[in-house]
Amino acid sequence: MALNPDTITLCWPNRVERATLSGGDWLASLPLTLAQDPTLAVRCKSVDADPASTWFDITLDKPRPIQCLAIAAHSFSAPARYRVRIYGDVDQRFLLWDSAWQTVWPQLFATAELEWEYDNYWLGTIAEEDRDLYTPLLTVFADDVQLAQSVRVEIDDAGNPEGAVRFGRLFLADAWQPATNVSYGIQHGFDNATEFAEAGDRTEYADVKRQRRTATFTLDWLSEEEAYQRLYSLQRVLGTHGELVYAFNLAARPENFARTFLARQQQLDPLAQPYAFTHTHSLKLLEIL
Questions:
Q1: Degrees, nearest 5: CA angle 168-15-54
Q2: Is the pLDDT of residue 29 over 60?
Q3: How confident is the model at residue 177 (pLDDT cuts 50, 70, 90)?
């Protein structure tokens, strides 16, 4: 069904590991198939930044319901663009959905945050020198779920400063939203693992670790079908190691880019039934870096 932009969205399971990747031109030492490795630090790399080298196809093992594509740990530059097309057949003759050309990096700043002299004042887009401050994750949501067997992804980043593009993980999955949105009290924060050592004169030295985003929330008004065909299945399939894409809100706003990330469950809380015909469930998610 069509996604509600104002409702939280959970996407799983990732179909990429059983898919075939092809197309483009990638280094023999860093091939496209590395994007099927769940370790984000292991990244594929194109031979150059020419769009003829940076496109690829994802061919699924059989028709699958698809509504979300994500590319994690990418090196796409500030002005980079993408296009995603979803097909119902392997030969790509039956087009189901076309994103058209879109910018990789959405609006990340409100106008009030920027100085008049800045090049990105009007659009609020990211500046090239600020890219390292943000977790690079491209997420694409189709208007409706598609029973797909092939997906073509095109990247237009010919001006990339590295002269090539890199990314660590592809994610392709169905998307689910609860009929009743998340309850108030949802928490977004950071998991900070920085360690401190103290010298004899009490001077502190920080061993700075990358911070991981967190989301903790409760779904208090689940039907029996939602509870056991969706969330119980999510626990069984993913456990605490499997990956999912979490999005608090799909509207294109700076706040929502901060609340969209590739995650895993930190713990598996039991489903509860406090009232007749009503189930509840709590989730605690930790960002995957």
A1: 40
A2: yes
A3: very high
Identify any residues that bridge with 147 across adjacent strands, giving them in sequence order.
Answer: 65
Dig out the tokens for 134 from the structure: 């943000």
Q: Among residues 58, 56, 70, 62, which one has the least CA distance to residue 10?
A: 70
What's the pLDDT band for 135 if we cut at 50, 70, 90?
Answer: confident
Backbone angles phi, psi at 177, to 5 degrees: -130, 140
Backbone phi and psi for residue 111, each to the nearest 5 degrees, phi listed first: -55, -35
Residue 45: which of 57, 37, 35 has the closest Cα? 35
- Residues in the chain, total: 289
Q: In percent, how much of the chain has pLDDT > 90?
A: 81
Handedness of CA 39, 33, 250, 226 (dihedral sign): negative
Residue 219: its H or E element: strand 212-222
Q: Rounded mean pLDDT of 200-204? A: 91
**How far, in whole angstroms, is CA 281 from its chain's centroid?**
23
**Cis-peptide, bond into residue 13, ω within 30° of zero:** yes
Residues 6+ apart with CB under 8 A from 234: 10, 12, 244, 265
Q: What is the Cα–Cα distance from 40 to 43, expressed in whole angstroms?
A: 7
Secondary structure element (H or E) that encloses residue 167, with its range: strand 166-167
Q: Rounded to the nearest 5°, which phi and psi values hold at 79?
A: -90, 10
Do residues 228 and 193 lie in contact, with contact meaning Cβ atoms separated by under 8 Å? Answer: no
Q: Distance (Å, rounded) from C-alpha 6 to C-alpha 26?
A: 38
* Biggest distance spanned by C-alpha atoms of the chain: 71
- Only one residue has tokens 């990638």, namely 26
User: CA distances (Å), 260 to each of 19, 62, 86, 135, 244, in order?
Assistant: 24, 28, 22, 10, 11
For residues 126 and 133, give the distance between their C-alpha atoms in angstroms, rounded to a whole number.
Answer: 10
d(CA 247, CA 287): 12
